[in-house]
Write a structure and sequence with these properties.
This protein has about 500 residues and is an alpha/beta fold. It has two domains: about 5-250 and about 455-475, 3-Layer(aba) Sandwich (Aldehyde Dehydrogenase, Chain A, domain 1); about 255-435, Aldehyde Dehydrogenase, Chain A, domain 2. The chain is about 40% helix and about 20% strand. It contains 15 helices and 22 strands. Strands 14-15-16-13-12-18-19 form a seven-stranded mixed sheet, sandwiched between helices. A six-stranded mixed sheet has the order 9-8-7-10-11-21, sandwiched between helices. Helix 1 (about 40-60) crosses helix 7 (about 205-215) and helix 5 (about 155-165) packs across helix 15. The chain is globular and about 80 Å long. The mean pLDDT is about 95.
């Protein structure tokens, strides 16, 4: 594992008074490494390196840029166990989930490798005689990428791969909690043949490195995933400079369970959505809106599944759920549990540190019943293994409850009625909808993102993710032999 920051094809160790201690949240005494925190000077160095590398990388044919990503995918596949183990040690998710994330990142690299052959434009008829008109997409220049800790491999890949294959150069700030997985991505890009300066990684705080990226005049776009507070402030700063920005932020995702639902399948989906990755996903299931005729039977199934979850270190392959990522998030989880109890929600199971785990940032899988829309646990994102169950007396009430929060990332419904499905799809206010499956999941070829407070800017992944990192150019070629435009009318 390399430590430090990766700038202009070199690993550097900033002269910093602050070290980023990279610890295992399942065992805080297990220190993976210490990364010297970059200063504004290193951030500026990375920005200048990216700017210097842009012209040559832009002029590299798209298919050749794609081949670099294809080589990166092959290298990552050879190192998939290393990537997964590193992710588990520094972020906490269990090895099975970490390997799944590693494979998802590889799929994204493969998808965008192919996009090097098809950065689309259009040919369109002109109103003028003897004129050929078409559009092309061209890279923006230097772009800034700011990633969160909860998917320290997949999110950096789905931001960097489209940016790179489109011909941009990158300055990437990983989360300070997960720099080791990010350093593996930098190593892999280097081994795949990415030229110096095209991809730069700067490990440091948002207040220093993030600010330097957002405020740099040469930066043409910023892609951010993280909290609403930081994302909204970043969006305002980017808007004052007139640069492109996309922000993916919070979620408070609901599963609606109708009277005709298959309750076993619904319970399985809710269980995975609520407690997988310790609930630390923006797409996690945090609310259940169940019809009163099925709620008790569903709740019994959910509690039975939750109480069978084995909590512990993700490095133990028999464990089902790992820790919160750090002490701050752990305290947040416990505080929300106390708030929910104080507001009158009924604690059904969980709610504390597991008795057998004295070290590490562990919380039991927790389920609350009788949660009303006025309660904070119904409205606010916890980002932990805490599930709120509410009663919805009709489809319309369930949709209204689902839409009543500020977020709009993803939602799901369990029903056998096609009419119910179609009404749900039309009326629910989220960027992604699922039918008879969990709220979680995304695929490389499908747009990812939400509405309302969840996100601003273009969607990520798929063709939309590539388009964000390009600008559209319209071309007029007059072959009439005359200087004026020869209009039809």
């Amino acid at each position: 594992m390399r430590t430090g920051s990766y700038i202009n094809g070199q690993w550097i160790h900033p002269r910093s008074e602050r070290l980023v201690r990279n610890i295992n949240p399942a065992d805080p005494g297990d220190v993976l490494a210490e990364f010297p925190a970059a200063t504004a000077a290193e951030a500026q160095q990375a920005i200048e390196a990216a700017a210097a590398a842009f012209r040559d990388w832009k002029n590299t044919p798209g298919p050749e840029r794609g081949r670099v990503l294809w080589r990166a995918a092959n290298i990552a596949r050879q190192r998939v166990d290393e990537i997964a183990r590193t992710m588990t040690r520094e972020e906490g998710k269990i090895l099975k989930e970490a390997k799944g994330e590693a494979l998802k990142g590889i799929s994204l690299l493969e998808y965008y490798a192919g996009e090097g052959f098809r950065v689309h434009g259009k040919t369109l008829p002109s109103e003028a005689r003897d004129t050929f008109t078409y559009t092309i997409r061209r890279p923006l220049g230097v772009v800034g990428l700011i990633a969160p800790w909860n998917f320290p491999w997949a999110i950096p890949v789905w931001k960097s791969a489209p940016a790179l294959v489109a011909g941009n150069t990158v300055v990437f700030k990983p989360a300070e909690l997960t720099p080791a997985t990010a350093s593996l991505l930098a190593e892999i890009y280097e081994e795949a043949g990415l030229p110096p300066g095209v991809f730069n990684m700067v490990v440091g705080s948002g207040s220093v490195v993030g600010e330097a990226i957002v405020n740099a005049p040469v930066i043409r776009a910023v892609s951010f995933t993280g909290s609403n507070a930081v994302g909204n402030a970043l969006y305002v700063k980017a808007a004052t400079r007139g640069i492109k920005v996309t922000c993916e932020m919070g979620g408070k995702n609901a599963v609606i369970v109708m009277p005709d639902a298959d309750l076993d399948k619904a319970a399985t989906a809710i269980h995975g959505g609520a407690f997988g990755s310790t609930g630390q996903r923006c797409t996690a299931t945090s609310r259940v809106l169940a019809h009163p005729t099925v709620k008790e039977s569903l709740l019994e199934r959910l509690v039975a599944k939750a109480e069978k979850i084995k909590v512990g270190s993700g490095l133990d392959e028999t464990v089902d759920m790992g820790p919160a990522v750090d002490e701050k998030q752990w305290q947040t989880d416990l505080e929300y549990i106390e708030v929910a109890k104080g507001e009158g929600a009924r604690l059904v199971t969980g709610g504390k540190r597991p008795a057998h785990l004295e070290q590490g940032y562990f919380v039991e899988p927790t389920i609350f019943d009788n949660v009303t829309p006025a309660m904070r646990i119904f409205k606010e994102e916890v980002f932990g293994p805490v599930l709120a169950v509410s009663t919805a007396n009709s489809l319309q009430e369930a949709i209204d409850f689902a839409n009543s929060v500020e977020y709009g990332l993803t939602t799901s419904i369990f029903t056998e009625s096609i009419g119910t499905v179609m009404r749900f799809v039309e009326e629910v206010e989220t960027g992604m909808v699922h039918v008879n499956e969990p709220t979680i999941g995304g695929e490389a070829q499908l747009p990812f993102g939400g509405t309302k407070a969840t996100g601003v800017g273009e969607r990520e992944m798929a063709e939309e993710g590539l388009n964000f990192f390009t600008e559209l150019k319209t071309v007029f070629i007059n072959y009439s032999g005359k200087a004026e435009r020869l209009m039809i009318r």
